Amino acid sequence: MEYSLVCHSLYALWSTPVKKKLILLSIMFLIWVYMLYSCVGYCSTMPSLVVDGYRGKETGSAVGKRTESSRTDLVSRLLAKPQPWEDIESDYEEPSIRTAASRDLLNNELETDRADDWDEMRAEQQRAPEPSAMSSFSNGSGSKKLPQAIIIGVKKGGTRALLEFLRVHPDIRAVGAEPHFFDRNYENGLEWYRELMPKTLEGQITMEKTPSYFVTREAPARISAMSRDTKLIVVVRDPVTRAISDYTQTLSKKPDIPSFESLTFKNRTTGLIDTSWSAIQIGIYAKHLDNWLQYFPMGQILFVSGERLISDPAGELGRVQDFLGLKRIITDKHFYFNQTKGFPCLKKAEGSSKPHCLGKTKGRTHPNIDPEVVQRLRDFYRPFNMKFYQMTGHNFGWD
């Protein structure tokens, strides 16, 4: 009798709406867990956005203060007077104090860089996520490591193309957007930096690229402090063409900036070049390399030709794979030449079965520049190029 009453009570309990509610709650819980796993797996392909968003919610005004402080530090570093560099006889002069107009131009260039960073982030979101992203999270495989190799420069040299090509290699995992850790976000610490990195398995290389590192005075010491074994890659390009490309990028975002010719010269009559303009200063490669060689041996730095990256991408990628100690997997079969854009594209991008070319921010048409100005710049850069050839042991054929 007592057993019958218990059974009856249990039957009544499970026959009531309570049972339906429990089933409904269980289903909702399972759906919530599935969505959580899916979200984390997807977001692992865009760590910078996730981490930045989380930090913004957690720290509030403190993050705002640090951000403002980092911007101030960046501007002050860019405005800082470089140390004298007297190995070369030329009409190079140390940059003088900037005028209000040149500070406005500097701000325009910084805003343009950030705008292009956002363009790259959006392009990352539009690309198909890697097939293993969710599975790597769910089964706990892989771990986040600090980068063993960094593309440190140069701006408008071809760094985005190189990174996109390298990401085809199964043993390379790289952050898509530029972290700017060693120039803008160093105060956030190495753990913050590590969290931006994708998960890697044993034998895979973690990479990132931020072209402004090459011209950031503090970057070599900071990267060396992280790891003296870090391999560095620099994509270099004819400094005159690079300067025009740099100007074209800024012009696309700020069409009211002064002409290229007026920014190039301190005095057009005397022909004195204004080396305080970053578009000119970045191209003095030998001067910047001298700073890096104080912390890294030449054997740890690979110089990739931006011109050859267009004319012979497989050849340059072969050199990079050798430098990283990887099997030559990326070959001619991965590329086709896009006549419209004027540079090579991937037949199949990472995580996709479709052809992939760089976005609209790459391959902009350059404005027409006075040939006399171009020749004057070539004369200016020649001694610096010769010094750079001697330092690297490679003639890039810019003169």
Q: Notable features of this structure?
A:
five-stranded parallel β-sheet, alpha/beta, 11 strands, 50% helix, 16 helices
- Alpha-carbon distance between the two ends: 104 Å
Overall geometry: elongated
- Structural category: alpha/beta
Instruction: Indicate the radius of gyration in whole angstroms.
Output: 26 Å
Order of helices and strands: HHHHHHEEHEHEEHEHHEEHHEHHEEH
Biggest β-sheet: count, sense, barrel?
5 strands, parallel
Residue share in helices? 40-55%
Describe this structure in words.
The chain is of the alpha/beta class. It is 50% helix and 10% strand. It contains 16 helices and eleven strands. The protein has helices at residues 2-15, 17-43, 47-59, 61-79, 100-126, 133-138, 159-166, 190-196, 219-226, 239-253, 260-264, 278-281, 285-292, 306-311, 313-323, 371-392, and strands at residues 143-144, 149-153, 172-174, 199-200, 205-209, 231-236, 265-267, 272-273, 301-305, 335-338, 343-346. The strands form four sheets. A five-stranded parallel β-sheet has the order 3-5-2-6-9. α13 (285-292) packs parallel to α16 (371-392). The model is unreliable at 40-87, 89-104 and 124-140 (pLDDT under 50).
Topology:
Layout: H1 2-15, H2 17-43, H3 47-59, H4 61-79, H5 100-126, H6 133-138, E1 143-144, E2 149-153, H7 159-166, E3 172-174, H8 190-196, E4 199-200, E5 205-209, H9 219-226, E6 231-236, H10 239-253, H11 260-264, E7 265-267, E8 272-273, H12 278-281, H13 285-292, E9 301-305, H14 306-311, H15 313-323, E10 335-338, E11 343-346, H16 371-392
Parallel strand pairs: 2-5, 2-6, 3-5, 6-9
Antiparallel strand pairs: 1-4, 7-8, 10-11
Helix pairs in contact: 13-16
